[in-house]
Specification:
binds zinc ion, alpha/beta, 8 strands, TIM Barrel, about 240 residues
């Protein structure tokens, strides 16, 4: 199995990432990736991009250096009510919305409390597409509750390569989450969360776990371009991809 679209990537607009959108697109093509979502940090995350970054993304062409670009964001859940740190008016302009919890921005809690917080965010934000890295130890949550909520609100669960590489302990969480996604037929996406262009599309550690867990390829939404296209067009009819 391989991925054809990397739906979580950063540019220098998040200053702890080191490549431009053009460099990311060049390397996506080199690494055999058809499309990337440009999902920089926003709002209250330290060193995130200014809101103008997100509101002006429409000026970028659909295809850069042969790679399709989805204009997106990685937004933070900032309270138990599941509120995000980006106005809805800005979210409506975007084409791909990752929602995340980070130590710098999001309330910690018991596993069930965290899962319920994710669900509040999914419920409040039809614009959101994917729950990013719910497998970090910091925000370990009740996966049964999370996955049932993701199905109800038609969100994808992310399997995040960077989290697996950064902390071996998250491997255990990924396995547990995959098992539950498999049980409920919940779709996942495997993304890099790349902070440097050469890493775009490189998901060998996450894919290895997927293989070991015998997780079905049919549930990996970005393993096939038509499958992914169908998902995004259902939500954003008329999009030119
Ligand atoms: Zn993140
Ligand atoms: Zn990220």
């Amino acid at each position: 199995m391989r991925i054809c679209a990397d739906l979580h990537t950063h540019t220098i607009a998040s200053t702890h990432a080191y490549s431009t959108i053009t460099e990311n697109c060049v390397w996506a093509k080199k690494n055999g990736i058809k499309a990337i979502a440009m999902t920089d940090h926003c709002g209250i995350m330290p060193d995130s991009a200014h809101i103008w970054h997100f509101e002006n993304l429409r000026i970028l062409p659909r295809v850069i250096e042969g790679t399709i670009v989805l204009k997106g964001v990685e937004a933070n859940i900032i309270n138990r009510e599941g509120e995000l740190d980006i106005p809805k008016s800005s979210l409506k302009l975007l084409e791909w919305v990752n929602i995340s919890m980070h130590a710098e921005t999001s309330p910690k809690g018991e596993p069930l409390e965290i899962a319920k917080t994710y669900i509040n965010a999914m419920k409040n934000y039809p614009e959101a597409d994917i729950i990013s890295h719910p497998t970090t130890d910091n925000f370990y949550c009740d996966y049964e509750t999370l996955v049932k909520g993701a199905l109800m609100y038609e969100k994808i669960i992310e399997i995040n390569e960077s989290s697996v590489i950064a902390k071996r302990s998250s491997e255990k969480n990924v396995c547990e989450l995959l098992k539950i996604c498999k049980k409920y037929n919940a779709p996942v996406a495997v993304n890099t969360d790349s902070h440097f262009c050469q890493l775009i599309g490189k998901t060998s550690s996450a894919l290895k776990i997927i293989e070991e867990c015998e997780f079905p390829e049919s549930l990996v939404i970005n393993s096939d371009w038509e499958k992914f296209r169908e998902f995004i067009l259902k939500k954003r009819p008329g999009m030119d991809i």
